[in-house]
Amino acid sequence: MKTTVFFCVCALGISSLSAQEEQAKDSLNTSLISLEEVSVAGLRANDKQPIPFSEVTKADLKSRNLSQDLPILLNFLPSVVTTSDAGAGIGYTGIRVRGSDATRVNVTINGIPYNDAESQGTFWVNLPDFASSVESIQLQRGVGTSTNGSSAFGASLNILTDAAAPAAYAEITNAVGSFGTLRNTLKFSTGLLNDRVEFSGRLAKIASDGYIDRASSDLKSYFLQGLYKDENTLIKALTFGGHEVTYQSWFGVDPYTLENDRTYNFAGEIYNENGDLTGYYDNQVDNYRQDHYQLHWNQTYTNNWSSSVGLNYTYGRGYYEEYNNDASLANLRLDDVVLGGATQSATDDITRKWLDNDFYVLTANAQYNVAETNLVLGGLYSTYDGDHFGKLIWARFASNAQPNHEFYRNKGEKTEVSFFGKLTQKINNKLSGYVDLQFRNINYTATGTVNDLGTIDIDDSFNFFNPKFGLTYAASENAQCYISYAKAQREPNRTDYENGNPRPEVLNDFEAGLRKKSARAQWSANLYYMRYKDQLVLTGGIDDVGAPIRENVGDSYRLGIELDAKIALNDQWLWQPNLTLSQNKNKDFNFERDGQLVNLGDTNISYSPNVVAGSNIVFVPSTQFQVGLLSKFVGEQYMGNIDADLSKLSSYFLNDLNIQYNLGPISWAKGISFYLLVNNLFNVQFESNGYFYTYNDTWSSSTQVTTIEGVGYYPQAGTNFLLGATIRL
After folding, report:
1. pLDDT-derived band at 703, boundaries 50, 70, 90
2. Domains of the chain as residue ranges with CATH
3. 484-501 residue pLDDT tens
4. Does the CA dihedral 89-93-96-97 come out positive or negative?
5. Which candidate among 164, 171, 540, 613 keeps its CA 20 to 30 Å from the CA of 643?
């Protein structure tokens, strides 16, 4: 499969050797973009549909894209909260929308699901510098439109990669910054050869020491694309991927350490037999490679009919390497060791926990579009095969271990078949109706042994029907109001099964809004009510590899209002504010405290701040220079579901300064752009994420059970900077 796709890319790239005189024609570029968007048109929303969304373009990302992961670049969108394990936006980063974590944000790349099939998470560390190959992004809040992959329970993030460039170019970007950050990117395109064929690509490397101690990142990535186009056909073959080696930093810090040494990292600690800390293991890393191969065929048949077919293969493999102090020999499936008459049942060791997976996807859709009717019919088939296994690299007492001793192995397999139909129908001159019907069938099995002597045995199937309905009223050509209802259902993820007997969750999403555009301003207001049954909310706890633990909570809801605007104050000043006010509640939440089950009534849903606000003020005195002040406020939030004071994360208000200066063209270059990004301008000490746990103390007293609470934090960096330059040839 990999060889075939690579051959297609190469063949498309070299099929024409005689280039015409290079000209960038607006009409040609418009037709290219139109053909490009055929593959995602069935998944994206527009102003005629009753769905709240935000658009992000390549130009929007350019000035801040200096090495940080894509979630950090989207931080200032409405209802978005982001965080970084290493504290500076490079390495493992996360995104939440309306309080929903990344496992509930559906992500597609060119219409292909990116969420991991088992964990349902998105790991942007596997695609470093991916923003450099993005043409546009649409973030739909709520259930949104039907999409490929797992249902959206907080948002959908739809990404379209680079469109064809009409003219040839080469681009070199270098950046340096705080915490030893260094980025080097080379990007190029042949332009359209004979107005038919283009070959383009990107190579990138990012390195950073991280704000947290030893939380280093060594990231490499690539993007290669070949395409053929004519008036009605676009065929694209592309491959992209990355290799990340990051020092583990998912343990956070306790309150005492936060106060006295906020950058401390517990990962890799080595203790001697007396319990004294003697050093840190230098290879306590997450080492993972991920390669994606996609083939897309977009076709227009008439002015009304078009279609898209997409094929994808994703190959991921890698491991966590860990030094473990005083680990159980039994958990390694080894015998005890007798030395000098004493039995040793534990040993210091180094292990690697491996994941090796393959993911295949086929997508297809057909579109019919006339003045009053837009109809999209689509479907998906995907299959996932993932091997999980652990290997012993070294042990102080190896017992009966053989070379490459394997102490657990299990396999996860998941298939999905889904179909959807969407109709946007103009009812009269003012009113349009929207109907979106989706069916999903999922089969998931996982069997074998797991770490700590356990076993896993999952064999589950789901059939979900997800209907969506809405009305849009056009008060004028540039003003609409809308109302919609959407139902979404989704399956538990692997971690949910490992921590209990989870149930699938159900969401009924009600949205109503207004949006308006004028010559100098556009704004929107959206009211949402999301009612859940058996919502899998974050408990606040994490497992042994930092993955968040979730549990079903019965009835719960999210109620809020989102305000978003873009206002040209004059020819030089632009202001983009947004505000989300919300309530996020578990209904009649039960909790076992001090050995007794108690009803706490309505409690706050974890990691769901009631206030999230953003702002971007941009000053553009000339075409060469612009400066922006980006601001973000996140209200206080609980890290658990029992409203414990200890579990509160304090609110924070951040400001970033972003400067861009463009020079050129000059004699030897089409242009040079300089960028400066100063993050956390006023050096706010804050934590954007953490964990919360409880356990029962049964040994301090023979007659009383006491519930103990504990907490950890992920500190984020104070004032830091990134400075970069792009040379375009």
Report:
1. confident
2. 2-728 (2.40.170.20)
3. 999 999 999 999 999 889
4. positive
5. 613
